[in-house]
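Homework help board

Subject: predicted structure for assignment chain

Our instructor gave us this sequence and asked us to write out the predicted structure in C-alpha cell form, then describe one feature. I got the C-alpha cells but I'm not sure how to describe them. Can anyone check?
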Amino acid sequence: MRITTALAFVLVTAFSAPTFAQSFVGEWTASAETPGGKVSETLKVVKVGDSLTITAKLVGVPEGTPEGGPATDIVLNGDRFSYKRAVGGDLVITYTGVVSGDTFTGEAAIGGMKVPYNGVRNKKAG
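My C-alpha cell output:
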C-alpha cells in the first residue's frame, strides 16, 4: 500500500509542475507602481523544451528608454514565480509573484526598493 501511495505522489508531483508552467505561458500586460508613476510592459512567457523564456517590451515610454534584457534565474514553485532581468548590464530587477488564473500579483525589487508588480493575461480576440 505504501508503494502505491508513494508512486501516486511521485506521479502527481511530476505532472503538477508542467501544468503551472503551461498556465504561466502566454502574453501578459504587466505594470509596476513606481515612485515616478506606473510603468507598463508586454511580458511574453514562452515554453521552450523543458524550460521557459521570458521577455518584455515597455509600453508607452519615450523612445530610447533602456529596456530590461531577457529573464534569467527563472524559478517556478507551485503557483509562485521569480526571475531577474538586467537593465544596462549593471542594474538587476528581481520579479516575484503568484499566478492565479489570468492574473498575477507580486513585486519588483531594484536595489533596496520594492514596488507592486501585477499582470493580466492578454486574451486574443476570437
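Reply (TA_rk): Your C-alpha cells look well-formed. For the description, you could write something like this. The helical segments are 2-24. That's the kind of observation they're looking for.
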